[in-house]
Amino acid sequence: MKKQIYWEDVKIGQEIPSLSRIATTMMLVKWATAMLPVRK
To answer: Residues 2-17: pLDDT tens digits?
Structure first.
C-alpha cells in the first residue's frame, strides 16, 4: 500500500506518483450531465 501524501507535505517541484483511475459508466454519466448547458 502506498503512503498517502498530504497537501502540506508536498514541496514545489517535488515529483508525486500519478493517480490512475478507470472511468466507470456512472462517472461518465455524471461528467456528461455536468457538461450540459444550464437552461434558465
So the answer is: 678 899 999 999 998 8
